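Quick one, tokens below. Sequence please?
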């Protein structure tokens, strides 16, 4: 769950030693000062590494670099060296929620948080294909849809460069994504296999808004709402659906946050405030020991509710379910969740890269930490591995979804 995301740009780092120095001092300056928007990031008081340990650490990196310069027989890719050093530093924290984002990947990272990206509107997968990449989803009314691409088509080349065909110059899944995306209004040329027919297609890139919230008004009077993440605009989309449900006088609401990786706290709190009565919603304590408690007003949605969760309901998703469970506003159906209890902030580093760093902890409205235990569902229901994969790719029909069926049963019996 991310409390704050901001950007800052400094000069390019050109060696492992310089990377180490700039990364440490760049992070230090960001943490004790003001960012570009004038918001206080915080202080490192009591958190600085001992001076001797710093010296030993920098001396070690310097020694490694000297050995590389003196003995390494191959060519040194300075940018890759700096990226790997920075990534290793964050991994060394031993915190699974903190990670490094290269400058090349930063724009894609922001696009994910904004639930929008510039591309053609396809989801691709490397599973169950001998070569190329399979299109597993085409966004309605997207450039890909208008060009006639369909689920099951194979992307064989991007601008003439082969995709996963075993050749030396073939590109992988991530590089294919990077090449298909680009500036709005520009074109990408794909070589595609459709029903054993191979053709070249030129597609103009445009901004694609990710479909984050979907819903169905079921025949039994239940409103089914799937929330894929709690990133930008999630609250606006969810509340619009709930308002429509009120107008239609639905009898209950089934929320689905399976495979939801979380998102912004503010988006989560807006939704919980709409659903829950007066009281605490979210408790957090940052690295400086400052506690913040978000509150709900007295207005709430007085309807039977259930939430579908699984092991991969993370962060804001499992917190969403936990808050509703503690207020006895909803029952939880599905699997035990993972148990995440730290929130992160994204800090831009010198060369345009960034670190997503855990900077605080949060608890449920009753002050319970989810770390290491997650949420125990009121009605435990598992799915087979085959059904989980089908659901993930949107191919599991409701009548074959045991967790969905249990949620409906619980709601209709209340």
């Amino acid at each position: 769950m991310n409390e704050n995301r901001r950007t800052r740009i400094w000069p390019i780092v050109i060696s492992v030693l310089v990377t180490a120095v700039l990364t440490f001092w760049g992070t230090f300056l960001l943490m004790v000062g003001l960012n570009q928007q004038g918001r206080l990031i915080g202080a490192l008081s009591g958190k600085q590494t001992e001076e001797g340990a710093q010296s030993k650490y920098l001396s070690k990196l310097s020694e490694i670099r000297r050995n590389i310069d003196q003995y390494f027989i191959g060519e040194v890719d300075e940018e890759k060296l700096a990226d790997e050093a920075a990534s290793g530093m964050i991994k060394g924290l031993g915190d699974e929620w903190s990670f490094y984002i290269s400058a090349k990947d930063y724009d894609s990272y922001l696009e994910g948080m904004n639930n929008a990206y510039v591309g053609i509107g396809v989801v691709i997968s490397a599973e169950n294909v001998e070569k190329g990449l399979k299109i597993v989803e085409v966004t309605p009314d997207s450039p890909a849809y208008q060009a006639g691409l369909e689920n099951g088509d194979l992307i064989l080349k991007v601008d003439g460069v082969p995709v996963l065909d075993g050749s030396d110059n073939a590109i992988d899944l991530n590089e294919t994504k990077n090449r298909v995306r680009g500036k709005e209004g520009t074109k990408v040329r794909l070589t595609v296999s459709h029903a054993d027919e191979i053709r070249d297609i030129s597609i103009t890139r445009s901004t694609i808004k990710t479909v984050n919230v979907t819903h169905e008004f079921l025949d039994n009077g239940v409103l089914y709402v799937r929330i894929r993440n709690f990133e930008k605009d999630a609250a606006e989309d969810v509340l619009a659906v709930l308002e429509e449900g009120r107008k239609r006088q639905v009898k209950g609401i089934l929320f689905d946050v399976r495979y939801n990786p979380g998102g912004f706290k503010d988006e989560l709190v807006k939704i919980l405030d709409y659903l829950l009565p007066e009281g605490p919603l979210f408790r957090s304590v940052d690295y400086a020991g400052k506690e913040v408690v978000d509150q709900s007003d007295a207005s709430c949605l007085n309807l039977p509710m259930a939430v579908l969760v699984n092991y991969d309901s993370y962060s804001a998703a499992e917190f969403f379910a936990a808050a509703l469970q503690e207020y006895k506003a909803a029952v939880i159906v599905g699997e035990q969740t993972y148990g995440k209890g730290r929130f992160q902030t994204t800090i831009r580093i010198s060369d345009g890269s960034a670190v997503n760093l855990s900077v605080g902890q949060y608890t449920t409205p009753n002050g319970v930490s989810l770390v290491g235990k997650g949420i125990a569902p009121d009605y435990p229901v598992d799915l087979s591995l085959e059904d989980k994969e089908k659901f993930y790719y949107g191919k599991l029909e409701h009548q074959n979804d045991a967790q969905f069926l249990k949620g409906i049963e619980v709601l209709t019996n209340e």
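Residues 3-49 have pLDDT under 50 and may be disordered. The chain has two domains: 1-114+211-414, 116-209.
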